[in-house]
């Protein structure tokens, strides 16, 4: 009855690892060594899927029923298994403890902002994009960054994450937050010191 | 007629409980009874029910309850006899009555004290009516006889206070007791209401005061007061014959039980006679008719105070004193016994020790049953040879059932008395023996477990013959049941279990699970062996539920769970909870765990590699 575990490709073109076809993978293990191993695999799976789909937010509600963006990894119809919300909750806790996610909004634990790229990486991407598109030294609103007319690596970036990235640039003197009429803006510098 | 002399007519239509005195109890009833007056059948009392109370015997005629029922004071009965019956003859109880008893003459103006409530002259306690004659004669609170002080104070009862209004008419007790002093009443046709002199209300003849205005009623002419009082109670017709037909020296009546029930009734009757409830509290019998309400000493009575007769506050104090003294005496007596026992206890312990030694020497190594008398403890000077033989025995036969029956009995008796000398001093050689004792216990336990225990009358297969793993509690219970006497406490049992592997083949060990469950098991059930077996099973099958594994191992599910959890804790296997199924619960029970090998320890990621 044992199915040979094989990788599988989802409709969205994501290659699932073979462990995703093992039923025990969907059960929280009481043995700490086993569980930490499983959690590592889960985190890797979640982050790579998030990167694949450009997903930034993971909620416990995503495990509660079909229809969420995460169905392809939180459920496996082939082996009739799904991740229970309680298990997802503990996985999220591990993500946060490994600084691969932050609670967003803060002071709750049911929803996280996934950091499949660290803020530093996003800061670099922002700077590279601004330099490449010739927008250094001009004031950019947050909206212009996250929803540019020409798709960029930053398209769809959540504002909290963008703010973290700008904070990183500010600390190294390559950006400055400026208040503008309809919210906030940022001016990016070349930063060559 | 004897009945006429002793029996007091009552109205049988009144339920018996209503006829009783306040301190009288109904003990038993039996119907289908006939009465013999002397040796002849009493014509008017052939079918009826008899009731025995603590004070009296009642006969209620079932056909004419009004006219042919009577009560008989148990005080008159001096002897009883029982006849079991033969063929057509019914069982009978013969009551021999006191020949010296003289019924109070009808002319005596005896008004019963128990009819009314009265206030004690000494303590002002209001004594309620309705008590038995003996109890009613003295104050319930201070014990002062009523008449002694009230004689001068109450010239006549019939003119006494209005508080007595109506009390006699409404009280069946009063009626039945009143009748004792009445002459045979006139026929019931003479009953007529009495007109009040003040308001002309026609009062019931029983009343002494007018029901409306409380005016004392006049005595109906030709109808003495006492007659009208007892008028509702119908009476047998006036006596026509004197009692010279029967032997006055030996008056007796018989109860013939025509519908059975004789035996139990007789038993109860005898008990009632023995109890002598009618004597009341510390009142000598026979003084019942000693006083009338007028305080006149009647010829039959005697007012001589007994030694206990006291009055007033002095009497109260003295009775309290006496009872306190009695209690003290009883207590000191009881403690004296206890002290004597304590003095003897030391001797008893010595005796028990000696007995144990002898038992041990004669029958069997004492190590099995008693820590207090190991062989080395026996003085070698006196019983060296027997001690030697006993220790030899100890190594060969350790089974309690091989003990002689008597020795076993004595031993268990000693154990029950708590004389096992468990507080014997612990010395170096004691500890030495402690160790050998444990060894012997382990050896015996091994026999119980593995069936090499062949000294018993029947060869037992051993608890673990069929099973490789068994709960410690089951072993303990089974072992103690096999021993029968000198049971092993759990602490000793746990110590003995440590020695078990040396005496068992294959070695049996104790395993303590995470939950605290302790099991004895053969090597096949060690953690390593089970883990290996489980891994191979799971490799073949791919995954198994707990119950499937339990079935395969022939163990209980809870035990299987314990063992699997231990393997899981090693990381060898991992669980698949069917709760996380998308549809249904797989095997039907949504929460069953399925186990699979943990093959992911060295898992190579074969999914999307990070961009």
What would your notes on this structure say?
- Chain B: This is Vacuolar protein-sorting-associated protein 36.
- Chain B: Its main location: cytoplasm.
- Chain B: Residues 150-169, 224-249, 283-312 are annotated as: Disordered.
- The complex is a heterodimer of chains A (193) and B (611).
- Chain A is an alpha+beta fold.
- Chain A has 2 domains: 8-114, Orthogonal Bundle (Arc Repressor Mutant, subunit A); 119-188, Orthogonal Bundle (Arc Repressor Mutant, subunit A).
- Chain A is 37% helix and 17% strand.
- In chain A, strand 4 (75-76) and strand 5 form a beta hairpin.
- In chain A, helix 4 packs across helix 6 (159-171).
- The longest helix of chain A is centred in the first third of the chain and has 22 residues, at 32-53.
- Chain A is elongated, with a radius of gyration of 19 Å.
- The mean pLDDT of chain A is 86.
- Chain B is an alpha+beta fold and 611 residues long.
- Chain B folds into 4 domains: 2-104 and 238-275, Pleckstrin-homology domain (PH domain)/Phosphotyrosine-binding domain (PTB) (PH-domain like); 113-229, no CATH class; 311-424, no CATH class; 526-597, Winged helix-like DNA-binding domain superfamily/Winged helix DNA-binding domain (Arc Repressor Mutant, subunit A, Orthogonal Bundle).
- Chain B has helices at residues 2-6, 16-19, 133-136, 146-150, 167-170, 172-178, 225-229, 262-275, 312-363, 380-396, 405-416, 428-450, 472-483, 490-498, 500-503, 527-541, 546-553, 557-569, and strands at residues 8-10, 26-37, 40-41, 48-53, 56-61, 69-73, 77-83, 92-97, 118-119, 126-127, 194-195, 202-203, 252-257, 469-471, 509-512, 518-521, 544-545, 573-577, 593-597.
- In chain B, strands 1, 2, 3, 4, 5, 6, 7, 8 and 13 form a 9-stranded antiparallel β-sheet that branches. In chain B, strands 14-16-15 form a 3-stranded antiparallel β-sheet.
- In chain B, strand 5 and strand 6 form a beta hairpin.
- The longest helix of chain B has 52 residues, at 312-363.
- The interface between A and B is large, with 40 and 32 residues.
């Amino acid at each position: 009855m044992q199915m040979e575990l094989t990788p599988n490709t989802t409709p969205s073109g994501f290659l699932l690892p073979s462990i995703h076809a093992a039923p025990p993978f969907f059960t929280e293990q009481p043995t700490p060594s086993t569980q930490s191993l499983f959690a590592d695999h889960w985190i890797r799976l979640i982050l790579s899927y998030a990167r694949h789909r450009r997903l930034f937010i993971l909620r416990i509600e995503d495990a509660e029923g079909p229809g969420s963006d995460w169905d392809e990894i939180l459920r496996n119809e082939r082996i009739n298994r799904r991740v229970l919300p309680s298990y997802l909750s503990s996985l999220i806790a591990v993500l946060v403890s490994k600084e691969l996610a932050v609670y967003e909004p803060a002071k709750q634990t049911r929803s996280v902002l996934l950091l499949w790229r660290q803020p530093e990486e996003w800061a670099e991407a922002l700077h590279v994009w601004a330099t490449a598109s010739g927008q250094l030294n001009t004031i950019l609103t947050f909206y212009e960054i996250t929803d540019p007319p020409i798709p960029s690596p930053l398209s769809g970036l959540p504002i909290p994450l963008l703010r973290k990235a700008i904070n990183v640039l500010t600390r190294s003197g390559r950006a400055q937050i400026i208040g503008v009429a309809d919210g906030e803006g940022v001016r990016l510098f070349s930063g060559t010191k | 007629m004897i009945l006429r002399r002793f029996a007091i007519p009552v109205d049988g239509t009144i339920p018996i409980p209503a006829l009783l005195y306040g301190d009288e109890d109904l003990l038993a009833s039996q119907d289908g009874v006939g009465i013999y007056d002397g040796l002849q059948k009493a014509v008017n009392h052939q079918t009826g029910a008899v009731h025995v109370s603590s004070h009296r015997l009642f006969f209620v005629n079932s056909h004419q309850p009004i006219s042919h029922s009577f009560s008989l004071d148990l005080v008159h009965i001096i002897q009883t006899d029982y006849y079991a019956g033969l063929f057509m003859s019914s069982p009978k109880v013969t009551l021999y009555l006191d020949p010296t008893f003289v019924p109070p003459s009808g002319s005596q103006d005896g008004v019963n004290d128990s009819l009314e409530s009265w206030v004690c002259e000494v303590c002002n306690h209001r004594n309620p009516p309705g008590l038995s004659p003996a109890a009613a004669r003295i104050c319930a609170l201070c014990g002062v006889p009523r008449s002694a002080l009230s004689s001068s104070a109450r010239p006549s009862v019939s003119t006494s206070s209005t508080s007595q209004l109506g009390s006699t008419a409404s009280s069946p007790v009063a009626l039945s007791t009143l009748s004792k002093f009445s002459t045979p009443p006139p026929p019931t046709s003479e009953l007529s209401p009495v007109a009040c002199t003040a308001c002309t209300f026609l009062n019931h003849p029983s009343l002494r005061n007018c029901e409306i205005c409380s005016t004392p009623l006049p005595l109906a002419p030709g109808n003495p007061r006492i007659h009208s009082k007892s008028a509702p109670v119908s009476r047998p017709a006036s006596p026509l014959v004197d009692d010279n037909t029967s032997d006055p020296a030996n008056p007796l009546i018989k109860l013939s039980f025509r519908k059975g029930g004789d035996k139990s009734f007789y038993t109860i009757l005898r008990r009632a006679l023995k109890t002598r409830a009618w004597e009341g509290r510390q009142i000598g019998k026979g003084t019942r008719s000693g006083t009338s309400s007028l305080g006149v000493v009647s010829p039959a009575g005697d007012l001589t105070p007994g030694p206990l007769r006291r009055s007033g506050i002095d009497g109260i104090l003295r009775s309290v004193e006496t009872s306190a003294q009695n209690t003290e005496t009883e207590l000191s007596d009881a403690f004296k016994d206890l002290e004597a026992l304590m003095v003897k206890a030391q001797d008893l312990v010595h005796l028990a020790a000696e007995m144990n030694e002898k038992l041990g020497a004669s029958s069997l190594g004492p190590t099995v049953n008693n820590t207090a008398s190991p062989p080395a403890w026996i003085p070698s000077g006196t019983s060296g040879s027997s001690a030697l033989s006993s220790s030899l025995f100890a190594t060969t036969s350790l089974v309690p059932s091989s003990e002689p029956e008597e020795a076993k009995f004595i031993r268990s008796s000693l154990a029950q008395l708590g004389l096992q000398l468990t507080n014997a001093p612990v010395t170096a050689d004691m500890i030495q023996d402690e160790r050998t004792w444990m060894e012997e216990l382990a050896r015996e336990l091994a026999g119980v477990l593995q069936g090499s225990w062949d000294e018993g009358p029947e060869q037992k297969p051993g608890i673990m013959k069929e099973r490789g793993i068994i709960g410690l509690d089951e072993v303990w219970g089974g072992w103690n049941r096999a021993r029968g006497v000198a049971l092993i406490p759990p602490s000793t049992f746990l110590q003995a279990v440590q020695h078990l592997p040396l005496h068992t083949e294959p070695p049996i060990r104790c395993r303590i699970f995470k939950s605290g469950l302790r099991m004895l098991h053969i090597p096949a059930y060690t953690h390593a062996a089970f883990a290996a077996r489980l891994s191979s099973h799971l490799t073949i099958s791919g995954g198994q539920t707990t119950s499937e594994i339990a079935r395969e191992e022939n163990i209980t599910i809870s035990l299987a769970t314990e063992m699997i959890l231990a393997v899981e804790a090693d990381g060898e296997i991992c669980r698949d909870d069917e709760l996380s199924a998308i549809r249904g619960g797989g095997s039907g029970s949504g929460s069953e765990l399925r186990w699979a090998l943990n093959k992911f320890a060295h898992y190579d990621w074969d999914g999307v590699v990070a961009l």
